[in-house]
Task: structure prediction
Amino acid sequence: MNRTKKSTVTIRLDWPVENENETIDSLSMKRLKVGDRLKLPDDLEKRNDSENEISMMALMCGVSEEVIKEVDQFDDYPKLQEAYLGFLSLTPTILQKQSSSSQRKQKQASKQ
Result:
């Protein structure tokens, strides 16, 4: 997965969500600023990973957590996850490359 270079990604929902008499058929996810972290719930450390991911997605999409919770699990949520992970600076691929590079440097240093 590549890191998302865009500041906003629009995700079209195959299964629209109803919220407050409004039909939501797409969500626009934006990159967060440092100050956006202040808008996250205070109890993040007490919540599980799924709850934290939902909170982050809701903040990034500018909707309530209830909207994210109503997204279809099988068709639409994976698209949200892909966009969400695309905004992260360290994806598993990048971490793996960094780890391999670090291991090579350690081996070279031990040979000297």
Observations:
- The first strand starts at residue 8 and ends at 19.
- Helices lie at 49-61, 65-69, 77-87, 92-111.
